[in-house]
Inverse folding.
């Protein structure tokens, strides 16, 4: 997924904004602040991948803000796609799934 996102960001000249957003993440409970920009990491560990999943949508929404008139629809579709993928990924981690809310 991140290869596709990086390709999308490169196409729209937003890679540097993505790195800046990634480096500007504040510390938070159970969240490890990345020491490097996304493109600087060569080998991802489990902890880094979990952090990526927690913040990729937030960083991407900031990076894709203020689109020009030709970018509005592609940016909206990209955010919807990433949000849907992350929702699926989170749901797939549950041991059981029901239509009812957990108690």
């Amino acid at each position: 997924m991140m290869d596709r996102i990086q390709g999308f960001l490169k196409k729209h000249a937003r890679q540097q904004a993505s790195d800046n957003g990634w480096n500007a993440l504040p510390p938070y409970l159970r969240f490890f602040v990345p020491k490097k920009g996304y493109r600087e990491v060569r080998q991802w560990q489990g902890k880094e991948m979990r952090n990526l999943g927690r913040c990729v949508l937030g960083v991407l929404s900031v990076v894709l803000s203020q689109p020009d008139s030709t970018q509005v629809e592609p940016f909206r579709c990209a955010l919807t796609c990433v949000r849907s993928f992350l929702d699926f990924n989170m749901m797939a981690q549950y041991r059981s799934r029901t239509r009812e809310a957990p108690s």
